[in-house]
Design a protein that fits this description.
Elements (H helix, E strand, L loop, with lengths): L9 H8 L4 H7 L12 E2 L9 E2 L14 H12 L12 H28 L5 H7 L1 H4 L1 H13 L1 H5 L8 H4 L6
Antiparallel strand pairs: 1-2
Helix pairs in contact: 1-7, 3-4
Length: 174
Amino acid sequence: SSGINAEWPLRPGSHAIHSLTVEDLKMYFNKRAGANNNIPVVNPMLRDQPRVLDNAPSSGYDEEFKTDGMKHFDLIMKGVNMEGWRLTAFEVLERLSHVYHMSEIWVAAGQKYKKVAKRLNKVSELCDCVRDIDSNGLAKYLQLTAFQIRYPGITSGNKKEKSTDCDSALIPLL
C-alpha cells in the first residue's frame, strides 16, 4: 500500500495547497523545489488572471528572519496595504491566523508526503492520477477556492462581508 487514500480528497486538497509558495514547498516538502514545481495555487494577486497559477510562486520571504513565523509575519505585513493581494476580505489578524493555520497543515502534510515519497514508485499509476488535476477534479476545486477567496460575501451568502471593488457592484444582484 502506498499510504495514499485512493479517493483523492479534492476539497481538503485544494485548501491545503491554495496558498503554497516555493519557499513553503522547500520548507515543508522538498528542499529542491523550484519555480517549475507543478503545484497549482490560487493567484495571490486576486484581481489578476489566471485565477489559478500552474506553479506555486516565490514569495520573497526576508531571509534575514530565522524562523518560519517571522518570515510569514513579515510577508503578511508587507502586503497589508497592497490592493487585491491575498485575503482581501480578511483583517490583519485574520491574515496572520490564516498563514499560521496553513503552516500547521503543511507541517502535517509534509511529514506524510515524505513517508509516502520514500515508498512510492515515482512512475506509478497513482502518481499519474494525483498529478492529473484536470481528470481528478482538483483543478475545478482550485478554481472554486480562488472564486471563494475573491468574492467571499457572494460565495458564503453573507452579504455583509467586506467586499472588494470588484465585487461590490455584484452584491445588489443577490
